[in-house]
Write a structure and sequence with these properties.
Number of helices: 12
Bound molecules: NADP nicotinamide-adenine-dinucleotide phosphate
Strand order of the largest sheet: 2-1-3-5-6-4
Structural class: alpha/beta
Number of strands: 12
Length: 281
């Protein structure tokens, strides 16, 4: 029996146990997967937990703490300075970040090609930092980053272009005003990695820009299948308007693979989760 868990605060809302138990059943692997509300200092919690557990997912607000305590980090975790998956093996704490790769897999499964695409990325928090490297690794044309607080977007870009070679000329930052006042601008794919939908608010992007996109993607997800942003873009007739449930499932699948070395069927898990969420609305 593999002892696993998701650690966070708050944690009650987490769908991770349902997703991982689905994978375990499918692959016939015995796991226990708990939601754990961590109220102590993260490092001391892990020091006790790792004595009996095999690994865990880590969510808000502990992803940076998990990054700091890992002995070995994946490239994605190093760049993101955040870890969402820990593996305890041979007295070593391995830290990974599967969020960005989960997003890339979801685009692939939904038939959205990233090759040579112009991307508008909204938000300059941890989620944006986590998805930047996998996006640049996917041969996109360029990324324009906007954020409510422009200074944070500039800071994130400066950090990123120093870390990842050859991104300087294809990574731009704009203020929201310059974006909305330039009617010539258009993007193939618009990714909302801000927390705006969490507050039921639309990011300040003009409909003229949104309408021209082939695909919009909101990292947030809801039980209804739509966020305020994906609903708004669908009403503007954007062809593909996708919420982040698929990303959640695929980042989980990559964690499960790290722990068990088993690949899982994310499409059937997504079908299952959609009906589970409908029933539990
Ligand atoms: P974060 O580090 O707290 O950053 C929040 C970002 O959102 C900042 O850029 C902030 O702008 C912006 N923001 C907050 N409220 C806003 C509003 N009302 N209008 C416009 N911008 C606003 O959060 P995070 O960790 O990056 O997470 C962002 C979102 O991604 C969350 O909704 C989270 O649930 C989602 N997420 C989903 C997955 C998945 O698997 N589907 C994985 C990771 C994250 P300022 O800089 O101006 O404050």
């Amino acid at each position: 029996m593999l002892e696993l868990a998701v650690l966070g605060n708050p944690i009650e809302h987490s769908l991770s146990p349902i997703i991982h138990n689905f994978f375990a059943k499918e692959t016939n692997i015995q796991i226990s997967y708990e939601k754990i509300l961590v109220q102590d200092e993260f490092e001391s919690f892990i020091n006790t937990f790792k004595k009996h557990a095999y690994g865990c997912n880590v969510t808000i607000p502990f992803k940076e703490d998990a990054y700091k305590i890992a002995d070995k980090l994946s490239d994605e975790a190093k760049i993101a300075k955040a870890v969402n998956t820990l593996l305890f093996k041979d007295n070593i704490i391995y830290g990974h970040n599967t969020d960005g790769l989960g997003l890339i897999l979801d685009f692939k499964d939904k038939g959205i090609s990233l090759l040579n695409k112009k991307i508008l990325l909204i938000g300059a928090g941890g989620a944006s930092l986590g998805i930047l490297k996998p996006l640049f690794d996917s041969n996109i044309l360029d990324i324009t980053l906007v954020n409510r607080t422009k200074e944070k977007a500039l800071y994130l870009r400066d950090y990123f272009v120093q870390e990842i070679k050859n991104t300087k000329d294809i990574f731009h930052v704009l203020s929201l005003d310059s974006l909305n006042n330039n009617l010539d601008l258009s993007f193939d794919i618009i990714i909302n990695a801000s927390a705006s939908s969490l507050y039921n608010e639309l990011p300040n992007i003009s409909d003229a820009i949104l309408k021209k996109a082939h695909c919009v993607y909101d990292l947030m997800y809801t039980k209804d299948g739509d966020t305020i942003f994906t609903k708004h873009c669908r009403e503007l007739n954007v062809q593909h308007s996708i919420q982040g449930l698929g990303m959640l499932i695929r980042q989980a699948a990559l964690s499960f693979e790290l722990w068990t070395e088993k690949k899982v069927n994310t499409l059937s898990c997504e079908q299952y989760m959609l009906s589970y969420l409908k029933e539990n609305r």
